[in-house]
Design a protein that fits this description.
By secondary structure, the protein is of the alpha/beta class. The protein is built from eleven helices and nine strands. α3 (109-120) runs parallel beside α5 (142-155) and α8 packs parallel to α10. It is elongated, with a radius of gyration of 30 Å.
Length: 283
């Protein structure tokens, strides 16, 4: 029975059109490639039926095959990255944020260093469920720094969602329990969740309950979370409203705080535009 199967397979192999122009019969009566001059056949003992010739790849065919596989793998990685970016929910403003484009101002080198270290040590951060809390005044680079982390990890095929509580709450409006659960499961399925502008959401019981639920779900999933906020550390630490207190307690349990301060980039750029326009108009 085995012999019959082997014969059928060998008959099929014999019919394969693997001989190309320039190929020739060489040592031992085997077929050789006309380009690289390595064998395109080898002899094997086929299930005890005797010595048979079977087709193999020569060196140049094997190299071409490896190159095709490499290109296919690269394309799959690029498609995976594109899918990750689409599903990341990141605003277009931040999709091009990178460490290479990070604008230093003499006071934010520490922020850049910590963000880079977080990325290079992300596997440990992930295993330890260690997140970050970027807090401080408006326009000091908190969101941009968080986006740099997101884009770096996306480039290295790590799943990330970057969004905001305002956007999350807007998305969840009208959800029934099943759709809400599916949505929060999606947020928890990624290795890193980044939520921008904590504290900007409406302070209704519904909104604060959902904010706490999202943070707490992440905590229970034992996955890291990065948050940005314009609130001060003192405002969060001394919150007397139990609704806020339990949110911030959970945040401090999960996230390493890093303060951003200094002149707002937006104010700085506005002042620069003012001076440039003044020179043009007033001479």
């Amino acid at each position: 029975m085995i012999g019959s199967i082997a014969e059928n397979i060998l008959d099929g192999l014999a019919k394969e059109p693997y001989m190309k122009d320039g190929d020739y019969i060489g040592e031992g009566g085997l077929l050789y490639c006309g380009k690289c001059h390595t064998s395109k056949e080898k002899e094997i003992n086929w299930f005890g039926t005797g010595i048979r010739k079977v087709a193999i790849m020569c060196k140049c065919e094997a190299a071409a095959f490896d190159e095709r596989k490499r290109r296919e793998q690269k394309e799959e990685e690029m498609q995976s990255l594109r899918r990750a970016r689409i599903s990341s929910m990141m605003d277009e403003t931040f999709q091009t944020a990178t460490f290479e484009n990070y604008r230093k101002n003499g006071g934010n080198e520490k922020h850049l260093s910590i963000a880079k270290n977080y990325c290079t040590e992300f596997q440990k951060m992930y295993e330890n469920n260690q997140g970050l809390l970027f807090y401080g005044t408006v326009g000091t680079g908190k969101s941009y720094t968080a986006a740099c982390i997101a884009n770096y990890l996306l480039e290295h095929n790590t799943s990330v969602v970057m969004t905001s509580f305002v956007r999350i709450l807007k998305e969840m409006q009208g959800f029934d329990r099943e759709r809400e659960e599916a949505f929060t499961n999606r947020l928890n399925s990624v290795r890193l969740l980044i939520i921008d502008d904590l504290g900007a959401e409406r302070s209704t019981d519904y909104a604060l309950e959902k904010v706490y639920g999202i943070i707490d779900d992440r905590y229970r999933a034992k996955k890291p979370l990065i948050l940005t906020t314009n609130l001060t550390l003192n405002q969060m630490q001394t919150a007397s409203d139990i609704r806020y207190e339990r949110i911030y307690d959970r945040v401090f349990e999960m996230c390493y705080p890093l303060e951003f301060k200094g002149v707002s980039w937006r104010k700085r750029e506005a002042a620069q535009r003012y001076e440039e326009t003044k020179k043009l108009l007033e001479g």
